Amino acid sequence: MSENIPVQLIVAAFNDEKGADEAWKQLKSAKWAGIIGIDNMAKIRRDEKNKIHIKEAGDPGGGKGAVIGAV
Q1: 8 Å CB contact between 35 and 63
Q2: What's residue 5's pLDDT?
Q3: 70 half-sphere exposure, CB direction, 13 A CA radius
Q4: pLDDT at 49 (0 to 100)
Q5: Residue 21: alpha-carbon gap to chain centroid
Q6: pLDDT, tens digit, for every residue of 19-59?
Q7: What pLDDT shows up at residue 59?
Q8: CB-based burial of residue 39 (10 Å sphere; 0-12 exposed, 13-18 middle, 19+ buried)?
Q9: Domain boundaries, the chain
Q10: Count of H-run helices and E-run strands, the chain
Q11: What is the per-residue pLDDT for 16?
Q12: How far is it, in rounded angstroms, from Cα 33 to Cα 25?
């Protein structure tokens, strides 16, 4: 039987891609240090032509939770 473990979804918006990249690095570092658990992370951005781009990290080391950074 599966456990009922709470899952949180975090969405953050940034003014530029550099800010999203820095947050991405900090979250991965916190995951590797055992501070937080992450199941999956993705960065979503819209380019000048209004096209959506998604960069997904998959499981950056295991754990529970989900993080999404949007630009």
Answers
A1: no
A2: 75
A3: 7
A4: 95
A5: 10
A6: 989 998 999 899 899 998 888 888 888 889 999 999 887 65
A7: 53
A8: middle
A9: 9-70
A10: 1, 4
A11: 86
A12: 12
- Write the single-letter amino acid at 40: N
Identify residue 29 by its one-letter amino acid code: S
Contacts of 16 (CB under 8 A, 6+ apart): 71
Confidence of residue 66 (pLDDT cuts 50, 70, 90): very low
Tokens at 56, concatenated? 């997904």
Half-sphere exposure of 27 (CA within 13 A, CB side): 26
Cα–Cα distance for residue pair 67/48, rounded to 1 Å: 25
Q: Which residue has the tokens 């939770």?
A: 65
Backbone angles phi, psi at 15, to 5 degrees: -75, -25
The predicted structure's pLDDT at residue 52: 92
Q: Which one-letter DSSP state was computed for residue 33?
A: T
Question: Which helix or strand (DSSP H or E) is residue 56 part of?
Answer: strand 52-58
